[in-house]
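Lab notes, practical 5.
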Amino acid sequence: MAPADAATLSPVALLPEGFRAGTLRGAEGFVRAGQDDAGRWWLIDADGRPFFCRAVHGVRAAPAPVDETVGGRAASAGPFAPDEHPAVRLRRWGFNATGIGGDGTGRDDGFAFMAGVDFCEVGGALVAPGLRLPDVFDPDWPRLAALRAHAVCAPWILNRALIGWVTDDQLRWGTPGGGRPGLLQLCLSLEPNHAAYHAAWEFVLALHGGRIETLARAWGVAVANKETLRGWTRSEQGVATRGYLKDEARWTGEFARRYFTGTAAAIRDADPNHLVLGCRFGGRAGDVVRAACAYPAVDVALLDWNDLPAGGAGAGPVLAGDVCWADADFREVPAPARGKKLTTVERMLKRGRAALERAARHPAVAGYVWRQWLDEPGEQPPFARGLVHVNGTDAREHTELLAAFNARAETLRRTPVRPTVSP
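Output from the prediction step:
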């Protein structure tokens, strides 16, 4: 059967055994998503087999380290020892897919994979502290997005291992908090050559009678003119009054709606066969943005694993993104309690294991993506975030736990969750 858009096929023909009618997303013969009779979301491979995605971002074929004691590395086929090639390591650790940000390693080795479109590469991207977004208010944005999608996506239209398209990597949405400027303030402070600058001022003035004095009263701040606001933004002084935050939410909602619907339309026009995964977030995103990163604009949302939905019949599907327990909150010392005192590493791994198992049991979560393949410069084990250290060795503090989890991930996924009994 030739590949086709899911919308053109009958639900009966598309429905794998044990899955709910009307829940399938994607095209028959390619990777899809669907909800089983127990209410759990799964990815479904091109041959109709459900699977729980276990992926890693940034997989690349970095050469193994040189053994300086003998003047070079041991002889091997190519730059890797037999057990060091990324594909061998991924299989040994139980992964079945690769994320984005790598050099394509894994695509030709039997792994499912995600790919990125990078819409920020076209037009004038909006870049500031806490901000990295394409200027979706540019009148030329739809045309540029369509050209980008056709150039990047069309060559992969028949690939059966491709899970779906990530619209952009490491987008930052100017989420307010900690005294930082929010998205609306950042857009109001852009240079006038950006369409988003003019759109933001038109938007906010329309809410307040076209006058800055009225806006200042509604926000409860002394905004004398546009330069006043720009000065606050330069000094990282964010407006955080109730009146401002109300306008911030409205603006962010409009920005996110334009972004997710526009990128999805461009991708689907270029490639109707593969799932749309939304963006990879470069930090926490607010509720308004996450609400826009959802069906029908996005088939399976790639959300930070700290931002998973609460659950319920209407939630999902999502992929738990940027999974990593090396962050500080996994190492914090809890309030004094009885029992054995754990070391920092033991505490980190215990909390990480528990969080990952909760994700596997979450009905909306169809898989996860570990944050990065290689340690970043300056990171120090055991609190580095890669699965491979800069010297080429396995990050066993992560890989041993992940291998054990991956071996039982689908069993955990299929285990019924006991309902909570109220006292």
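Observations recorded by the TA: Confidence is low (pLDDT under 50) at residues 1-13, 64-79, 419-423. The first helix runs from residue 11 to 14.
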